[in-house]
Specification:
The protein has 207 residues and is an alpha+beta fold. Helix content is 44%, strand content 14%.
């Protein structure tokens, strides 16, 4: 599979990455899982393929300040958590036991940042509560927030609507609405075209 980054995908003759899947606006962990996209023609797009891309992804979702200076180590940690969350989503959709390594990774991320808002005082605000967020812990807080959302998604009411996109080669996940099993209009059109072709040629295809 040939990899194209976000900017290359827009300039290349290949299809660009699709818009956010249903449910991604509600669950940043789902959005994270879908930040690596399999595209037709054996290509892929990774929205976290560099420190700058990872930083932009976090900033756009209010998970890091605009002035953050992420390094490759930080981007790698974000991609690693993505892989583990994808493993948990895949096991949930397939009805398989959750992988132990994925559970450990999410639980580790959950414990990396303080859960309680601390008590502070300033001359202009007086006493107030806010989460500790030193610059050195930007990534820890982002990973903890994403891990917490993944845990909420997998154990909450939305877990019953979680499904994988039904249009090959797409590898994204979504929250199902009615009978819809596609993450985008483009994937739905591709699945319908594949079914029509299968009917014309008498070959098996996506149902």
């Amino acid at each position: 599979m040939r990899h194209v980054n976000e900017s290359d995908a827009a300039k290349d003759s290949a299809e660009p990455a699709p818009p956010p899947a249903p449910g991604a606006a509600l669950h940043p962990a789902l959005d994270l899982a879908n930040s690596t996209v399999a595209l037709p023609g054996g290509q892929s797009a990774d929205l976290l393929d560099s420190p700058a891309a990872a930083q932009r992804w976090l900033v756009d979702r209010a998970l890091a300040p605009a002035g953050a200076d992420l390094r490759e180590t930080c981007a790698s940690r974000l991609r690693s958590l993505r892989d583990q969350i994808r493993a948990l989503l895949a096991s949930r959709v397939a009805g398989r036991p959750a992988p132990a390594a994925a559970l450990d990774a999410v639980n580790d991320a959950l414990t990396r940042a303080p859960a309680a808002s601390l008590l502070h005082w300033s001359a202009d605000r007086g006493l107030y509560r806010a989460a500790a967020h030193p610059t050195t812990q930007i990534v820890e807080h982002a990973l903890a927030a994403l891990a917490a959302d993944a845990a909420d998604l997998l154990t909450g009411p939305d877990a019953e609507r979680l499904t994988a996109c039904g249009s090959a080669p797409c590898n994204r996940y979504l929250l199902r609405h009615g009978r819809r099993h596609w993450c985008s209009t483009r994937c739905g059109d591709r699945a319908r075209a594949a079914r029509a072709y299968a009917r014309r040629t008498g070959r098996g295809g996506p149902q």
